[in-house]
Specification:
The complex is a heterodimer of chains A (about 260) and B (about 325). Chain A contains ten helices and ten strands. By secondary structure, chain A is of the alpha/beta class. Chain A has a domain at about 5-95 and about 170-255: Rossmann fold (3-Layer(aba) Sandwich). A six-stranded mixed β-sheet of chain A has the order 6-7-8-3-9-10, with helices on both faces. In chain A, strands 2-1-4-5 form a four-stranded antiparallel β-sheet, with helices on one face. The longest helix of chain A has 14 residues, at about 120-130. In chain A, about 50% of the residues are buried. With about 325 residues, chain B is mostly helical. Chain B has a single domain (about 70-315), classed as MetI-like (MetI-like fold), CATH 1.10.3720.10. Chain B contains ten helices and two strands, in the order αββααααααααα. A two-stranded antiparallel ribbon of chain B has the order 1-2. In chain B, β1 and β2 form a beta hairpin. The longest helix of chain B has about 40 residues, at about 20-60. Chain B is flat. In chain B, about 40% of the residues are buried. The chains are: A alpha/beta (about 260), B mainly alpha (about 325).
């Protein structure tokens, strides 16, 4: 079930350094939201704090709340492991498990959730691979290692792995930055299909990509090195790219800065 | 040297002479180092063969199947069987005990310990490697033997049905088990240190792949760290095994040696190639010395074979075509 994500005064820290300052926003279910902004503006950090991957870095922590349909994922009695089983993530570089077969890669999340029934696993591996537009290419070699696929195929494998557990939200951290244009197009098409089922948040450096895939765009920036990143403005993608409310946004999207 | 002179006016940069002298010099140094190692190895092998062959000719028994060591008798009768067996058994035992502990220590330092604790703990483990082996020998004999006697007796009583974990004399003590335990402590640092370095090298993308799916720490280790580290752990194990095979003085102190085929690990007795050399070299006659050198040659070959096998394993278990 796709869920709403609400950030309430979220600040992210690396040790004493405040990397992101006071971000509040609401992300509607079954929509695609793009995070854009210059390098170091904290957009990836915000993304990683939405499934509590931020805290994997030693010394990293957050302040504020992140609500998933009213439930605070940072509440004291919430286990980060359960948060990550509910909110999927796709990374910059494709990272399938190198020693696992294609099938096992996709089934890995389900197995973590205790699914052992072979028929159930087979059914949902096929559904996820179809969902990731990869099924036709790999259906005859499901037992082969996932590492043998091309970069674009590997990234779609990682998307299949992430959606196999039916996450409430799918986070994508520059999912196309290591891919060629054709593979990028395949992933973008896929994002358009996936938003019928999932809430998707994507970090991208590519502004054309943001206009192609997202409904809503959030622009982050920093005042300078050592300063915290801030959310400048968030609006429909068409508004951000045609008639933004802030001068800084306009400078960035028109290429005059960053 | 024209090679270091600035380009002559009007002459293209592309046509300048290559600065080959430092490059060649370094190349020669590196090649020399490689050949020195080969030469030393060959020298040892030749020495062992030359000294061993005359003694082997005097051996009236079969060198490989005889379970006795009387090279200075007339006629000389000695065989490597007992010694090779004891060497392999103690080293294997050491490996079986050391690997789980070493992996535990390495995983703890790499993934569990807070940074403030991880570093000093790493140093402490490395320090274990700096203790002279004779100290381990006396520690095993004077501390571990009396203090593990209760455990050994208990194991012998309740597990004697396994045959292996029993004693044939009714007593326990200076057994393969004790020697294996001491060796385990001695090889622990090298196995732990190498494993730790490999665990620290597991790519972040791999660890995050597991964590982002909702893997617990153990599941992350099982899916990301251990598969990545497999071949490295195998290499670490082999290095440890090699050290255990060749360890001399600690085993010589700990074992109460004899030349019988001790099949029960808790029975006092048994012997290893290296320990036998250390204990009998000073009293050996001419044939005896040659026989000991022949045993050294066997140890040399065993170590070589173990290393080759391990390399084959390490190559095989490296994930093919993995993108890191």
């Amino acid at each position: 079930m796709a869920k709403r994500v609400e950030l309430d005064s979220l600040s992210c820290f690396y040790g004493k350094f405040r990397a992101v300052d006071d971000v509040s926003m609401t992300i509607e279910p079954k929509s695609v939201t793009a995070f854009i902004g210059p390098s170091g503006c904290g957009k990836s950090t915000v993304l990683r704090s939405l499934n509590r991957m931020h805290e994997v870095t030693p010394g990293a922590r957050v302040e504020g709340r992140v609500l998933l349909d009213e439930e605070d994922i940072y509440a004291p009695d919430v286990d980060a492991v359960n948060v990550r089983r509910t909110i999927g993530m796709v990374f910059q570089r494709p990272n399938p498990f190198p020693t696992m077969s294609i099938f096992d890669n996709v089934a890995s999340g389900l197995r973590l959730n205790g699914v052992r029934n072979k028929a159930v696993l087979e059914e949902s591996v096929e559904r996820s691979l179809r969902g990731a537009n990869l099924w036709e290419e790999v259906k005859d070699r499901l037992k082969k290692p996932g590492a043998g696929l091309s970069g674009g195929q590997q990234q779609r494998l990682c998307i299949a792995r992430a959606i196999a557990v039916q996450p409430a939200v799918l986070l994508m951290d520059e999912p196309c930055s290591a891919l060629d244009p054709i593979s990028t197009l395949a992933i973008e098409d896929l994002i358009n299909e996936l938003k019928d089922e999932f809430t998707i948040i994507i970090v991208t450096h590519n502004m054309q990509q943001a206009t192609r895939v997202s409904d809503v765009t959030a622009f982050f920036t920093i005042a300078g090195t050592g300063q915290p990143g801030k959310l400048i403005e968030m609006d429909t993608t068409s508004k951000i790219f045609s008639n933004p409310g802030e001068k800084r946004t306009e400078d960035y999207v028109t290429g005059r800065f960053g | 040297m024209t090679s270091t002179a600035p380009a002559a006016p009007g002459r293209s940069r592309l046509l300048q002479e290559r600065r080959t002298v430092p490059d060649r010099g370094f190349r020669v140094l590196v090649i020399a180092a490689a050949y020195v190692v080969l030469a030393i190895l060959a020298g040892i092998a030749i020495f062992l063969v030359l000294k061993a062959v005359p003694a082997l000719h005097k051996d009236t028994a079969n060198f490989f199947t005889t379970f006795a060591w009387n090279p200075d008798n007339t006629p000389a009768q000695f065989g490597i069987g007992v010694l090779a067996y004891g060497t392999l058994v103690t080293a294997l035992l050491a490996l079986v005990i050391a690997i789980p502990v070493a992996l535990g220590v390495a995983l703890f330092i790499a993934y569990y310990a807070p940074r403030a604790l991880a570093q000093p703990l790493g140093y402490l483990v490395d320090l274990l490697a700096a203790v002279p082996s004779i100290v381990y020998g006396f520690w095993g004999l004077l501390f571990l033997r009396p203090y593990s006697a209760g455990l050994q007796t208990w194991v012998a009583r309740y597990f004697s049905w396994t045959h292996v974990l029993g004693t044939s004399t009714g007593t326990v003590g200076q057994s393969f088990f004790l020697a294996g335990t001491v060796l385990a402590v001695m090889i622990l640092p090298i196995v732990a240190a190498i494993s730790r370095e490999i665990f620290l090298q597991v790519p972040q993308t791999q660890r995050e792949a597991a964590l982002a799916l909702g893997a617990t720490k153990w599941e992350m280790i099982k899916w990301s760290a251990l598969p990545y580290a497999r071949s490295g752990i195998a290499s670490a194990a082999v290095l440890g095994f090699g050290r255990a095979l060749g360890e001399t003085i600690a085993v010589a102190i700990v074992l109460s040696t004899n030349y019988e085929l001790v099949s029960k690990l808790l029975s006092p007795g048994g012997n290893t190639i290296a320990a036998n050399i250390a204990l009998t070299y000073s009293d050996a006659g001419q044939v005896g010395t040659g026989a000991l050198i022949a045993s050294g040659l066997v140890l040399f070959v065993i170590t070589l074979v173990v290393n080759l096998v391990a390399r084959a394993i390490a190559r095989q278990s490296t994930p093919a075509g993995s993108v890191v």
